[in-house]
Amino acid sequence: MGFIFDWILVDFTKFDPTLLLMGAVLVVLIIFMVRNSRKRRRDAAEMQDKVKVGAEVMTNFGVYAHIKKIDDVDNKVVLETSPGNTLTVHRQVIARVVEAPAAAAKSASAPKAAGQVAAKSAKTDVDPQFGERVQKPATKPARKPASGSSK
Q1: Range of the domain at 59
Q2: Dihedral of the CA atoms 40, 42, 45, 49 (nearest 10)?
Q3: How many structural domains comprise the chain?
Q4: What's the rounded mean pLDDT across residues 71-97?
Q5: 117 or 100, which is more confident?
Q6: Is residue 37 part of a domain?
Q7: Strands, DSSP E only, in 42-105?
């Protein structure tokens, strides 16, 4: 039985750099996991603070609506998609709270220089924005079959 204990004993006098490297990688992995979970928890708490009656929200399935009523007991939210049309959904369906972009409001109210307007119009003619519909070029008319009878 003595040979079993000899096999279990570890020789700590030898230095193994791969063991040290594996330990360092494990520590870094744990640190990143903890940071990521804290960030996710903080973002979820911020979003839940923004979810209030009257806020405009987007659901997981892409519906934009305003919150009419929040039921904390049953975790239900009543959303108004358009005047008179309401949806009752689970609170977790709310993907994000839609906020008015501040940069767009500032740029719309600020007067633009003539060069900026010309540059923008030239760019939109060449490069459409993401999701923007573009007119397709006119297609050639279909070719008529060759003359002659085909019976």
Answers
A1: 53-97
A2: -130
A3: 2
A4: 92
A5: 100
A6: yes
A7: 56-59, 64-71, 76-82, 85-90, 94-97
